[in-house]
Amino acid sequence: MHMQPTSSMKEEFLQKWQMGLQIYRPLIDNTSVSERRKAIKLSADVAMASLRRGTTCWSRALIQKTATEDNFLVRQMLSGIKAETLINKKLPKVMCHRKIVRRSKKILRRRKSRSAIEEVAAKARKLVKKKTQGLRNVVPGGEFMSNDVLLIQETLDYIVSLQTQVNVMRSIVDAAEAGSERTAYYLGKLKFAIEDG
Amino acid sequence: MDLSGRFGARSGDGVPFREATALESLHLGGGGEEFRQMVPPENAGGFTALLELPPTQAVELLHSSSSSASQATTLHSLGTLSFPSNPLLMERASRFSVIATENQQNGNVSGETTTTSSVPSNEHIKTEPAETETCDQAAVEKQSNRCGKRKELDKKVKSSTKKKSKSSEENEKLPYVHVRARRGQATDSHSLAERARREKINARMKLLQELVPGCDKIQGTALVLDEIINHVQSLQRQVEMLSMRLASVNPRIDFNLDTILASENGSLMDGSFSEQSYHHRQLQQPPSQQWPFDGLNQPVWGREENQDHGNDHNNLMVGSASLHPNQVKMEL
Q: Could you tell me which residues belong to the region Disordered (chain B) (predicted)?
């Protein structure tokens, strides 16, 4: 199933990310560091999500989220129909209002005599429920996954994709930083040479 | 209605989920009966194997149940689970049939626990959803061992609140309900579904545990989920960090990944940056692949060396030219 990021995934991610960055190229001169960071991150996110081609819930949610920040980028990066359907699709209107559901469940639940062990079990369940809610908050689109099975499946896929994204980005960043060091080094050398000569 | 030696008409949730609708159709409403029996003929093989009954007899029982509405006996049906304790089941079932004859009029299934002297009165068994095999086995053994207290508590731990609430609604008389009563509920499709769902969740959690480093040692779902959440958050933070780093690097570089790699090529000539070669090998770009950007076509750094020797300075110049156009002009 999903295991470690494969090299083909990494390559595809790199390609798509580059395509996204190219879109920003005309604008680089006028940007600040934070704007550039945002552009980099957004293109990386869309690239990561587009690898899944709309099959997973988290990827669709991530694309929609990014579209709210930069609609143009998303449209350009996802060519064709996919962009339209993904962006224009309404988010599910009926969100499971968990608080309301929980409260009504509490009302319905009859008071029973609680033994110690029952209470422990109930607490354990509550804890697990809290954690799954925490997981929903972290995974994009998690709020719409009322099904626990789906949530865990999506988390699996999301983690693998995140790993791919991180691996490729780290390689590029290391190369870029080393490159800039090197360039600075050579520029310094040049300068030195010129001044001397 | 001679119920001796016959097994019950109702039962419940042992059958596979897809049988659930068939089960529904066989439901016998009647006299406070709370279970329905589900041994559809095509499944008779599975059940009867468990019960060690001849198939015909089981089918007969099944169909006879439709005529005998007030049967109190239930089949301890656990169709989806294998039963090593078949003999126990038989013994138990036979006991139930005895009980049933005595308690025919008693619509309450837990009559098994109340009236007969063969069953000690202190055998209180909570109805619990059979969510795991061990649960079911414990249930069977429990009944046969007549010392349900401890095991019932174990089962309690494993049950869900949903099931509990249902059981409390179902049992009018006793605080403790027999396990089978619980499973024989009209909600057996629910319990089936719940069990299947739980198994799915557990399987996927195992996968997650393998994926997230350091999770296999942890016991308990809540802690594992904690680890998973932390891992996801750390990955997200790394992405933020990396994009910040890339943005802080000279502007021209971030948006021209090809120049990064081109200039990197130059740096590798010196052989002093082993890290980059490692990272680029991570990318593992196959040589045959066509890249939109020439600079990316660096399959193996070693191979490019010869070609780029002459271009070494050019590349650097290109890199720096894109870096600081003004600065380079000044230099030159």
A: 101-176, 300-332
